[in-house]
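User: Can you predict the 3D structure for this chain?
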Amino acid sequence: MKLVGGRRGHFRLESGHHSRLWLDLDALFAEPNRISPFVDALASAIRPHNVSAVCGPLLGGAFLAQLVAQALALEFCFTERVMPAERDGLYRARYVLPSAFVMRLSGKRVAIVDDVMSAGSALRGTYAELMAHSAVPVVAGALLVLGSTGAAFFAEQGVAVEAVARDDYDLWLPAACPLCVAGQPLEDVAFFQKHLR
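Assistant: Here is the predicted structure, written as structure tokens:
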């Protein structure tokens, strides 16, 4: 998928994991016609799961959720990120469902989607929020799944994972990061922009 730019370095992602690759996803949805074949492919993969709504975390996940929901003629909703002041630890971001959607989703089968899933922080947060409001997330989808960390979490929950593309990805716990050991400066992308989760 040649639709996004990226750069190499030493990055702390929203999940708290470290990686050497950071993708710039801001322009992914700038030209909807360019990504429509990928949106259609994801919608086709989600269709057999018989969901009633599609939910995505702001920003990119919500854009994708709206497009997938439109393709499947389903309801759309989104969650909003809340980052704590404390930067240490894993999966500290929370995702909050606006009150207008709470009653609409109660008891419904929901697909949760994001543009890219690596560790799965945004999708995990959205999953937890939907479960807290009695929705039933049954499938997690992404245009691109990087590595296995995020997908493994959903497999443990019994939630199917659908992806248009998958690729290998280096993702480390902070204590096991070889880039930290090598003394490479760390850039904290999580607290300024939401790119890789």
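The CA atoms of residues 147 and 169 lie 5 Å apart. The domain at 35-166 is CATH 3.40.50.2020 (Rossmann fold).
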